[in-house]
Structure formats: C-alpha cells, structure tokens
C-alpha cells in the first residue's frame, strides 16, 4: 500500500487502521483552475496525486486533497501569518465546508469521491487570532486551522466526518479500497 501524500496528519489517520504502508510525495500543480469549484478542485487534485506516483499494479495507492470552502471561496494553505489571520477572521462565528477529495488507485483503476463536512467556528477575538497564529500551527493547514490541534478550541461543531476535516475521511477510504478488493482495517499489510 502507498499513501501519495506528504501530510503527517494523513499518515497518522491511515496508521490508525493498523495498516502498514509506504509514503510518496506526489509532484502535482495545486493551482486552482479558472472557474473551478472547491469540490471539483479537490477531486481533480486527488486523482492527479494518485496517478503521479509510481506503484506496481497490485499496490493500492491512496491520495487525497483537502480544502476549506467559505461561500464558494477556496481557502487553501495560508501563504504567511497575515494570510492565516485573514482566514481566521473570515471563519470567525461562521459555518464553512471542508471538502476532501479521495482517490484510490490499483493498477489503471481509480475510484474517487469527495466528502464534505460542515464546521462551525465560535466568534474569535483579535487576541484569539493573534495567539493562534503565533503558535505557527495554521501555516500549513487548509483554511488556516487544525481541528485536531490547538485550533480545535475554535470549533463549536462538526457535522459530518471528523477525519475528513483532519484530511482523510477514513470511512470513504476503507469503502473505496474494498471496492478495489483491498481490506484496510484490521490488516497488517
């Protein structure tokens, strides 16, 4: 099995299933195409990442891409601290969508799906945002926060898959892998 992702969060989530796997970092242009919706964006990138890594035909390749969607705007990883603070101000007291595109490939066959969760933030003060940005945590996270980290203090409610918000909806990965003939949970390989 091969995880086509450099994300430590995805590695941690997949490891929770008890699987052993190798990791490869796919080289894919993550630029948003003109007029591309957040759902189409993550689906396209997940499929591209699954195809961007070399693997033997019998190897299961798992790839994903996650973004935060606020009113149709794609909120990817912030470029710097000011961008992270801006994202957090926009998310404050509002509900947004987290989309993760998942692609599972075995040989030439690729199954893919987008999972969406709704996340509601508490209202944030300027001091909240300043504190959180100073932790450095938001800088490599879509939308500028980590629900599984210190940023979880801002999350009032999650409707849908929590593992999706972290970056890999495990229920979907397991189902898609099974559709390709690979059982993930409870396996050692």
Structure description:
With 189 residues, the chain is α/β, with parallel strands linked by helices. The chain has a single domain (2-179), classed as Maf protein, CATH 3.90.950. It is 31% helix and 26% strand. The protein is built from 6 helices and 7 strands. It has helices spanning 8-15, 38-51, 81-91, 126-135, 162-166, 170-179; strands spanning 2-4, 22-24, 60-70, 73-75, 95-106, 109-121, 155-159. Strands 1, 2, 3, 4, 5, 6 and 7 form a 7-stranded mixed sheet that branches. The radius of gyration is 17 Å and the shape is globular. The model has no long low-confidence stretch (mean pLDDT 94).
Give a short overview.
This protein has helices at about 10-15, 40-50, 80-90, 125-135, 160-165, 170-180; strands spanning about 1-5, 20-25, 60-70, 75, 95-105, 110-120, 155-160.
SSE pattern, N- to C-terminal = EHEHEEHEEHEHH
CATH topology: Maf protein
Q: Multimeric state of these chains?
A: single chain
Strand content: 25-35%
Which percent bin holds the helix content?
25-40%
Taken together, the total number of domains comes to 1
- What is the terminal-to-terminal distance? 7 Å
Per CATH, the architecture is Alpha-Beta Complex
Structural category: alpha/beta
Q: What's the β-strand tally?
A: 7
- Low-confidence parts lasting 5 or more residues at pLDDT below 50? none
Count of alpha/pi helices = 6
- CATH C-level class: Alpha Beta
